[in-house]
Specification:
Mean pLDDT: 95
Number of helices: 3
Shape: elongated
Low-confidence stretches: none
Order of helices and strands: HHH
């Protein structure tokens, strides 16, 4: 993979990570509870979702 593709992929993943973290942190408490999600675990959940 070229350097450009590597950088582009890293940037794309970082954007997806930040969006996921923000979505979880800003989720209404009731919805988070229904989904079984603790908003304090947003970074862990986003890391697993985006980076595997």
């Amino acid at each position: 993979m070229s350097l450009f593709h590597t950088l582009f992929d890293s940037a794309r993943k970082r954007i997806a990570y930040r969006r996921t973290v923000n979505a979880i942190r800003n989720m209404p408490k009731e919805i988070a509870e229904d989904l079984g999600v603790f908003r304090g675990d947003a970074t862990r959940i986003a890391t697993k979702a985006v980076y595997g």
